[in-house]
Give the backbone structure.
Amino acid sequence: MIVDFHTHIFPDKIAKKTIEKLEDIANVKAFTDGREVSLISSMEEAGVDLSLVLPVVTKPEQFVTINDFAARLNEKYQGKSRRLFSFGGIHPDSPDYKRELRTIYDLGLKGIKLHPDYQSTYFDDMKYMRILDYASELGLITIVHTGIDIGFPDHVRCTPMMIRRVLDEVAPEKLVLAHYGGFKMWEKAGELIAGKNVYLDTAYLFDFIEDDLFLQILKKHGADRVLFATDSPWSGQKESLSHLKGLSIPNEDLDKILGGNACELLNL
């Protein structure tokens, strides 16, 4: 089973406009148009069985709309052989973060996505640390954008140093660091984070990181805590899979990265 642990879709009525806006901000070209049907088509072409959809709550008042959409998506695909599976989202400025995390749990959502850049909050801010702590108490998975965001390259709100501080102070359970622990900050991530009790995903990675550095961090961190991910529509699923399979990774470790670790983490 192949699991893409990091994808994004948007409602059909806003997908085209949203993708065009993000392409303009980041000066990149998307691989799909951001619609649900396009992600399914990409999965079929690549041979991906499950894609984890990660919504981002950019304003506290979006909480209900985004999490209801996530819950409906999970219900729609439950039991299907090729399926989408959504996490929920929460904003660090939530007026009642414990209540909102319990709502996410009650909706059957298995985790949350945090994005320090789009939520204008540093990762080692107390507002995030208390969310991480309570999410751990509830057994929720937390995935966070790390390192540089290409839309905000001059202001990094989640550095490897900030992550290390959070790990030392909160020790959150089931924390997934997107972009291999720090997009375009991989040497520092390898120094400060590799080997710690966190998961690293491979989202939007292979066009930017040297293969030798990727493998070096993989060896230090261990294949048991690495998750295949693409950040679709910003990376191609077929292309990312081909690159990963072409690296010198033992088959047993590759199977874990491609889906085994994700299935265990998601309890599928």
Summary: The chain is about 45% helix and 10% strand. The longest helix spans residues 251-266. The two ends are 11 Å apart (CA to CA). Residues 30 and 234 are 5 Å apart (CA to CA).
